[in-house]
Design a protein that fits this description.
The protein is mostly helical. The chain has 14 helices and no strands. It folds into 2 domains: 46 residues, no CATH class; 229 residues, Orthogonal Bundle (MetI-like fold), CATH 1.10.3720.10.
């Protein structure tokens, strides 16, 4: 097990380095110059000396390989640098301020999705072609088909215009209060949007996996031995049927940014996704590069934990 983990960590390190190089190159190839943004978009006359001074101040006048090596060395020491556009604000501070919002959104939505999707998928698989199975299939299809941005906008309109008055103080968009008894209300609509899609995907995967497992020989043998249905389902079927769901969880975490960008933009939430998009449009090199590396580390760690979870759920994988 230890050699396997060491090998995976080494592979993950190579992936992180490649991603950082690609991100560094792509940001430099984007049209525009952050020096002009630093001097202010409203400036009419910007001298070449001012541009050169700004580029020299931030090391943008150096060759690309030197810029990357300096940034990479500082990153290894835990120094993410300062934001180019938001002068004087450390990138690490910006990330730490936005991570709690994104983490809460995704952890809560994933927990709710699992709590609903796993039982629903199991029941739909056991009661195949039943009314519950058909309704689950329709609901899952709608959940997957509805775009997050459309669902978010429709919920904003619904809760702003048509929901009863006792819901009137529910914050629809804007900053989520960090403290206070009512701060959790700001997460209701964003979590609902994120949960809908995840729940739909996981329900379909759990149903298909349950149907496949119930058709295996060892399940039929357990029934032939006279074991109770619940015992066969819980001890033999569900445990093996969870493997594809674990894969989906790892996949969702790997693409955590794609979902949160849309939701945080629609609801104007100060999370990682919104910070990333704002930094890309403003050519804030330090923020974008640091965020991509942090997310790459997260993806590598989650993929490793997913593979280790396989071995815990199914001993045959550990033995192999």
């Amino acid at each position: 097990m230890i050699p396997y983990i060491a090998r995976r960590l080494l592979q993950g390190l190579v992936v992180i380095v490649l991603i950082s190089v690609i991100t560094f190159i792509v940001m430099r190839l984007m049209p525009g110059d952050p020096a002009y943004l630093l001097l202010g978009e409203g400036e009419i006359r910007i001298s070449a000396e001012q541009i050169e001074a700004i580029r020299r101040r931030w090391g943008l006048d150096r060759p690309y390989h030197e810029q990357y090596l300096v940034w990479g060395w500082n990153l290894l020491r835990g120094d993410f640098g300062d934001s180019l556009i938001r002068t004087g604000i450390p990138v690490r501070q910006m990330i730490f301020e936005t991570i709690p919002v994104t983490a809460k959104l995704n952890v809560i939505s994933l927990a709710l999705a699992l709590a609903v999707a796993i039982p629903a998928g199991i029941v739909a698989g056991v009661r195949r072609n039943s009314p519950f199975d058909y309704s689950t299939a329709v609901g899952s299809t709608l959940g997957v088909a509805l775009p997050n941005f459309w669902l978010g906008l429709m919920l904003i309109v619904l809760f702003a215009l048509y929901v009863p008055r006792w819901f009137g103080e529910l914050p629809l968009v804007g900053r989520i209060p960090p403290f206070g008894l009512r701060s959790w209300q700001g997460y209701i609509l964003p979590v609902l949007v994120l949960t809908t899609e995840q729940m739909a995907v996981m329900t379909r995967v759990m149903r298909a996996s349950t149907l496949e497992v119930l058709g295996q020989d060892y399940v039929r043998t357990a029934y032939a031995k006279g074991l109770p249905n619940m015992t066969v389902l819980v001890r033999h079927a569900v445990r093996n049927a969870l493997l594809p769901v674990v894969t989906v969880i790892g996949f969702r975490v790997a693409f955590i940014l794609s979902g949160t960008i849309v939701v945080e933009t629609v609801f104007a939430l100060p999370g990682i996704g919104r910070l990333f998009t704002d930094s890309v449009f403003r050519l804030d090199y330090q923020v974008v590069q640091s965020l991509v590396v942090v997310l790459a580390v997260l993806v590598v760690a989650v993929n490793l934990l997913t593979d280790l979870t396989y071995a815990i759920i199914d001993p045959r994988i550990r033995i192999g």
